[in-house]
Write the structure tokens for this entry.
Amino acid sequence: QVPLAESGGGSVQAGGSLRLSCELSDQIYGDYCMAWFRQAPGKEREGVANIDNLGNTAYADSVKGRSTISKDIAKNTLYLQLNSLKLEDTAMYSCAAGVGYCYPSRTQFTYWGQGIQVTVSS
């Protein structure tokens, strides 16, 4: 079973919304920090948001107020709701998971998804 599998990406017009999903394998449960990252062409990977096992969340300034990270424990799925999408939100989005403290700038994770493309057009 693939540890993490993203879905829900695609093309959307600026101002629109999209919800990304990340299905987690059964091996990922308990005290995990889970996160979303993105990487646009020619740019470094950027942390978008993360959520700890208690549901505490942190967001990058670039998406704060426009996005929501959440998880459904019963479905073992992580979500990222993106609203008021901008052209600069165009990127490959990846989910990640790892044990340990979920500090806002954390970039080290054990498990990574393959990534899914989000393209915002005018």
User: Anything to note?
Assistant: The mean pLDDT is 94. The chain is about 0% helix and 50% strand. The CA atoms of residues 23 and 55 lie 17 Å apart. The radius of gyration is 13 Å.
